[in-house]
Amino acid sequence: MRVVIQMYGLMLYNICMLLTYQYKLNPTPEQVVTMETWGELLRRHYNYALGQRLDWLNRTRSQIDRCSLIYEPIGEIPQKVDYYTQASDLKQTKQLFPEYENIYADCQQQNLMRLDKSWKRWLIPDKNGKRGGRPRFKKRGEICSFTFPRVNCAKAGAHLTGNTLKLSKIGEINVILHRPIPDGFEIKQATILKKADGWYVSFSLEDKSVPTALPIDEIKTATGIDVGLEKFLTTADGQSIEVPQYYRKAQATLARQQRKLARSTKGSKNYHSSVNKVARLHLHVARQRKEFHYQVAHWLVNSYDLIVFENLNIKGLARTRLAKSILDVAWGAFLQIMQAVAVRRGKHTQGVDPRGTSINCSGCGARVEKTLAVRVHSCSCGLVIDRDWNSALNLLKLGSVGLPIPGCGGLGNTQPMKQQVSFVNPRCSRYTACS
């Protein structure tokens, strides 16, 4: 399940939800050449448009009545460059370079929209005051996708009929529809992209049957989840899931292929073959990890009405010496998937500040200092439980304030326990807990 197809995008819009279904394509060799040519031409146009914006920024970064202390470009100051001015120049681009006439016009506009979003993300901070990185020039092969913004309508460039996708100026391509598009879902746009193992199409679907969130007074089951490296996560009722370590297990095979790649002559057939094998290995590991995340997320959402998790600074943690293990478990990707699945099911999720949750006692609230090497929480009140279990109980307490549910999971200071954590395998049945 979800080796080829993934619901990896989800966004709320009023009462609708946007899902992304991905299917594999079977293009002909001629169509492959056409799509690769489109990607290369769009890459060149992207770089040219980015150069225009950077040139305008460098020439106008100083006010008109003063000079820059660093440098001042000489020449005529250009007018402001934005999406609308660059989109209006597409007609002139096709006159100067006739090969761009073979690319569907909407795909070229979407390419400029992609640049415009990256540009604004760099210059305009978000509500938290953070900005994205500076847009970079794309190397050959980095732009391997293009978008048809309209599907199955009068002026659309893409039409899906059965298992056949008809693209303007490309032709009809067979689609492997290994799961049907649900009834009532409207296809908003189609993105053609290339991966290491072939070409895919991602349909953006609008789902108007979004379930309403469960009322707060009807929440019956809640849990806190503590993520870690020894155990992937531990719930407030003592259940844990082991860390799969997909990248660690694939390291030996990956290193062997990378050594073979290093010995190959750059640009030769063996070189390109080795590059593709390395890319396929990374793609396989990513798919394994995402499938595992979906299984755990569905198991949690099916088991609990409210899931409390910790708001971790994952980027900061990934700068430590544990970076490889932290990036392998991919907590951030899992939390996004879990929240998306919860919204789709009408369940609740809540993030809380994790400070002190591993140190404070979940029974009496006392502060019990311990290092990371100490994996058992032992308090003077008599509570002796697993360290991650104690943290999950504290997270549940913080997230269930004001709710009509037991916030401590049944562990009070009058009921000290000494118990081991039980492991759960979410794969034993399809998105259900083990019996």
Automatic annotation (TrEMBL):
Highest taxon in the source lineage: Bacteria
Sequence ranges assigned to domain Cas12f1-like TNB in this UniProt record: 331-395
GO molecular function, one term: metal ion binding
Domain Transposase putative helix-turn-helix: 17-60
Family annotation (Pfam families): Cas12f1-like_TNB, HTH_OrfB_IS605, OrfB_IS605
Domain Probable transposase IS891/IS1136/IS1341: 214-319
Gene Ontology biological process terms in this record: DNA recombination; transposition
InterPro entries assigned: Cas12f1-like_TNB, Transposase, Transposase_put_HTH
Alphabetical UniProt keywords: DNA recombination, DNA-binding, Metal-binding, Transposition, Zinc
Family: In the C-terminal section; belongs to the transposase 35 family.
Name the UniProt record assigns to this protein: Transposase
